[in-house]
Design goal:
Layout: H1 3-21, H2 27-32, E1 38-45, E2 49-50, H3 54-64, E3 69-72, E4 79-80, E5 85-92, H4 93-121, E6 130-132, H5 142-151, E7 165-167, H6 169-175, H7 178-188, E8 195-199, H8 202-210, E9 215-219, H9 223-233, E10 238-242, H10 250-254, E11 260-262, H11 265-268, E12 275-284, E13 289-291
Parallel strand pairs: 6-11, 7-8, 8-9, 9-10, 10-11
Antiparallel strand pairs: 1-5, 1-12, 2-4, 3-5, 12-13
């Protein structure tokens, strides 16, 4: 995630997550340690996977303690192993303890998505087909989840409803047909926007071609029907495949010669990557000693 996106889009969401977790004070931490104590805590991988969200992780602590820093021993997108130390967070102990769960929630979620995406992208190696995400994201997590898809090697579909024209079945029903929907979109949308049409039958493929759609999405079609659709389209539009996309089907779908395969599972079904902050050590001011911590 670049610095501008982090500051403009992600930071207000991180602050909101921190406010959700700390409504007045962190009672546990305030009970045991003073505000001036400083320390460090180690980030450990508890599973193999792809690490993603290191900048978000660090920024979470910095919003509680401007002096906090994360010295990472890995880079964004690196593959990590179980038991590997990924870096050390330094700062005021109050911030380290109060911020750890929110910071880990972001890092684990983003790393899980990047890990799933990386494994699915590998199924497409040697083909020209791109794997893309969808808008099936967790509310208020889209900026993080789509960044994780990109880090995992996937491609982002439109970010939101303002990003492009996608005419789905209900749009087509509302407009009275594919031709009418495409014509209305061409008349209203800025000329730089491509027009994508979702189709479920070969007749709808023909209608989308007659309407000169830029992208035709083959939705929930079987392999035989998709082969016929590809023959009809014959390069006249970009082709996206969607619906029931699993890791096992990816390579077979790519052999059809489609340009794009979209998968909501990248963001709505990815498990987290298990990570932990361990071996917190108080190094200055209010205390000495060590505290093992895992919220």
């Amino acid at each position: 995630m670049n610095a501008v996106t982090l500051r403009l889009q992600a930071e207000p969401l991180i602050l909101s997550a921190l406010r959700e977790d700390i409504t007045s004070e962190d009672v546990s931490t305030a009970s045991i340690i003073g505000d001036e104590a400083t320390g460090q805590v180690h980030l450990i991988a508890k599973q193999d996977g792809v690490i993603c969200g290191l900048d978000v992780f660090e920024r979470t602590f910095q919003l509680l303690d401007p002096t906090a820093r994360f010295d990472a021993t890995v880079a964004e997108g690196d593959e990590v192993k179980t038991g590997q130390e990924l870096g050390i967070v330094y700062g005021h102990v109050v911030a380290l303890l109060s911020g750890e769960r929110v910071a880990l929630n972001y890092l684990q979620r983003m790393s899980g998505i990047a890990t799933l995406t990386r494994s699915m992208v590998r199924s497409l190696e040697g083909t020209r087909t791109r794997l893309v995400d969808t808008r099936k994201t967790t509310p208020n997590m889209r900026v993080f989840e789509k960044d994780a898809v990109r880090v995992g090697g996937g491609t982002n579909h439109r970010y939101n409803l303002s990003d492009g024209v996608m005419l789905k079945d209900n749009h087509i029903d509302a407009a009275g047909g594919i031709r009418q929907a495409v014509e209305a979109a061409r008349a209203h949308a800025p000329f730089v926007r491509k027009v994508e049409v979702e189709v479920e039958t070969l007749d709808q493929v023909r209608e989308a071609l007659d309407a000169k759609a830029d992208i035709i999405m083959l939705d929930n079609m079987d392999m035989g029907t998709m082969r016929e659709a590809m023959a009809l389209i014959d390069g006249a539009a970009e082709v996206e495949v969607s619906g029931n996309v699993t890791a096992e089907r990816l390579h077979d779908l790519a052999t059809l010669g489609v340009d794009i395969i979209s998968s909501g599972a990248l963001t709505h079904s990815a498990p987290i990557l298990d990570l932990s902050l361990k071996h917190l050590t108080v190094t200055g001011s209010d205390g000495t000693g060590a505290v093992g911590t895992e919220a």
